[in-house]
């Protein structure tokens, strides 16, 4: 009536909208049987609380944890009070901890039974900048990720419920979860068990690298951008629709541990806790734990030191995919240092000087990845131009025409400058293959990309990754023999996380975990709570349950329309135009500086300054990648 008028016809015509329901609930919430005179603020009764003001209070609290915002909305009758929010969150936290004690395992209620389950562990560091801060936080965060399928959505566990009992704070977590027993290695640097390592099929690499060259060709020949063209790397591969069918993954954070992740004791403890969670949710499954390089190295040594309890037949520890990508981009940045690449980016006006320098260290993975995509297209454009010119010159003297591959091999022997930039392009394409394996949930491609990437780590002297990635690749290639059920799950794409239903948007397990860590350290996260154990415990234990309540209300009240869009976020006309403009500008700049693929001298020099490298560097370049292959 308030919105659509007093007549019956208009009310029947428009029905009850979301705003109608919200207004009706707010009217009930703000009606009082009697008003107290002289009181500036009327106290609301719990008996007249409706869902909408509870939703508003919990939603703002979950996103910002700002008392002032909740109280402001409460003063205007739009939300429950901040104290009431804390009371509800404390009741939820108390009920959740009671569930942990009852089940004998710290396992968030949002997780389901009967689903393939993986876990990620990482360090989480927070150094308060406030002048009043007296301590920092260096703890361990653990994510649990479940992979539902169309046929198996999992069995939801009993929902958390609580009575009218007043609870002021969230109780302590079980000692078995928070107390970490000391540990140390009996022998220094335990050795891995010996086994035969199969090689990935080389035919697969040729097929997969050809897909990257198809994209390069498409970018090179495209002159005009229309609505149907997908030029960016992500948009192009998303349009190919190679990803298998998938369901959105279920993710949950376990309560933070206050102990540092980079210790033998913490790694052992986390492995045990993950084992308990997996046994509770999906009995019989081998636990899968993802970690970055330092933690991965510790975890593997734990497996080799205590094979009876933590052996490779009882746990699968895998390398974080985002960690590998970052290391590869940094390794490529080391190769490009002093090459003139950053100067060319600045001169082409596709990056500022500060941004260009940060790309060498992959300070921003997304920006670095995108700039290498622009660089790869520009280099390929110049490479094909040089090949076409060579064919034209050769046609004047002979009828014999070299293929593109044969010509590249000959030119690599003749020109160090050609060899260097061809190697840069090749490494970029291998990195793109690695990233594509995550986006397309393609486990075979992942193994192939790893095997092609490892020689670059050896050649570029990235010691830790050159040492530990072969161990990880060994585990992946022998998975069908050691853990056939896990191999089947990985081959079905369950080695990545699907946070949305969009195409070509799957993430590596550790990347999804990093995003969860960012929420912890962001606005509304654990910032400001690390010095208050009680408040931190409330946020970690009750926070997910508050968010779950908010999501349930939004689903039931249909406050958010379900997204039907499956297209990738880069599949827009503006994104294609921007990418094409950057490629054109960079390729023209490289051409003006001197096409490196048309250089005939024996010198290796910087593109922008023309500084010539030491002759020994040019000589070593000829065997650079071969040395990496030798050590593999």
From TrEMBL:
Question: Which stretches are tagged as biased composition: Basic and acidic residues?
Answer: 557-571
Tell me which domain of life the UniProt entry assigns to the organism this sequence originates from. Answer: Eukaryota
Region (Disordered) spans which residues?
A: 556-579
Q: What is this protein called?
A: Uncharacterized protein LOC103506659, partial
Species per Swiss-Prot/TrEMBL record: Xyrichtys novacula
């Amino acid at each position: 009536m308030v919105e659509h008028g007093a007549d019956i016809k208009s009310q029947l015509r428009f029905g009850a909208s979301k705003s109608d329901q919200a207004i009706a609930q707010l009217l009930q919430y703000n009606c009082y049987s009697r008003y107290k005179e002289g009181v500036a603020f009327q106290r609301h009764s719990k008996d007249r609380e409706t869902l909408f003001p509870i939703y508003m209070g919990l939603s703002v609290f979950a996103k910002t944890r700002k008392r002032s915002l909740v109280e402001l909305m409460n003063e205007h009758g739009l939300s429950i009070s901040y104290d009431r929010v804390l009371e509800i969150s404390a009741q939820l936290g108390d009920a959740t901890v009671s569930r942990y004690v009852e089940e004998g395992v710290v396992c968030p209620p949002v997780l389901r039974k009967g689903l393939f389950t993986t876990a990620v562990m990482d360090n989480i560091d927070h150094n308060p900048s406030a002048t009043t801060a007296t301590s920092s936080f260096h703890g361990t965060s653990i994510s649990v990720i479940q992979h539902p399928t169309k046929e198996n959505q999992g069995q939801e566990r009993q929902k958390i419920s609580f009575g009218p009992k007043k609870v002021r704070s969230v109780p302590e977590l079980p000692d078995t979860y928070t107390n970490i027993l000391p540990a140390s290695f009996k022998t220094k640097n335990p050795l891995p068990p010996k086994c035969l390592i199969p090689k990935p099929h080389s035919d697969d690499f040729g097929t997969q690298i050809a897909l990257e060259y198809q994209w390069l060709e498409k970018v090179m020949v495209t002159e005009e951008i229309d609505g149907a063209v997908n030029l960016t790397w992500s948009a192009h591969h998303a349009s190919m629709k190679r990803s298998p069918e998938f369901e959105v993954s279920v993710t949950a954070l376990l309560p933070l541990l206050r102990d540092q992740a980079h210790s033998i004791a913490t790694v052992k403890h986390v492995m045990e806790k993950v084992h308990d969670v997996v046994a509770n949710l999906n009995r019989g499954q081998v636990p899968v734990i993802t970690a970055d390089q330092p933690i991965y190295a510790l975890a593997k040594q734990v497996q080799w030191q205590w094979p009876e309890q933590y052996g490779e037949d009882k746990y699968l520890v895998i390398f974080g995919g985002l960690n590998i990508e970052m290391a590869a981009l940094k390794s490529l940045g080391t190769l490009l240092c002093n090459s003139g690449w950053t100067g060319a980016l600045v001169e082409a006006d596709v990056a500022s000087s500060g941004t260009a320098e940060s790309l060498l260290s992959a300070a921003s993975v997304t920006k670095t990845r995108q700039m290498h995509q622009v660089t790869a297209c520009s280099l390929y454009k110049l490479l094909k131009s040089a090949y076409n010119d060579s064919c034209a010159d050769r046609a004047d003297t002979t009828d014999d025409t070299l293929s593109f591959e044969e010509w590249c091999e000959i030119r690599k022997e003749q020109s160090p400058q050609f060899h260097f930039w061809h190697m840069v392009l090749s490494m970029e394409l291998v990195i793109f293959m690695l990233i594509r394996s995550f986006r397309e949930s393609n486990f075979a491609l992942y193994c192939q990309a790893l095997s092609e990437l490892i020689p670059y780590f050896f050649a570029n002297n990235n010691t830790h990754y050159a040492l530990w990635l072969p161990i990880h690749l060994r585990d992946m290639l022998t998975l069908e023999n050691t853990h056939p059920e896990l191999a089947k799950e990985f081959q079905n794409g369950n080695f990545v996380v699907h946070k949305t239903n969009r195409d070509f948007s799957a993430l590596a397990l550790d990347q999804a975990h990093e995003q969860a860590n960012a929420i912890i350290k962001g606005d509304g996260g654990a910032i400001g709570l690390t010095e208050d154990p009680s408040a931190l415990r409330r946020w970690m234990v009750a926070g997910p349950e508050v968010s779950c309540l908010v999501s349930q209300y939004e689903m039931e009240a249909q406050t958010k329309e379900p997204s039907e869009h499956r297209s990738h976020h880069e599949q827009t006309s503006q994104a294609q135009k921007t990418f094409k403009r950057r490629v054109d500008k960079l390729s023209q700049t490289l051409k003006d500086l001197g096409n490196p693929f048309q250089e005939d001298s024996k010198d290796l020099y910087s593109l922008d300054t023309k500084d010539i490298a030491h002759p020994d560097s040019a000589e070593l370049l000829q065997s650079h990648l071969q040395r990496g292959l030798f050590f593999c």
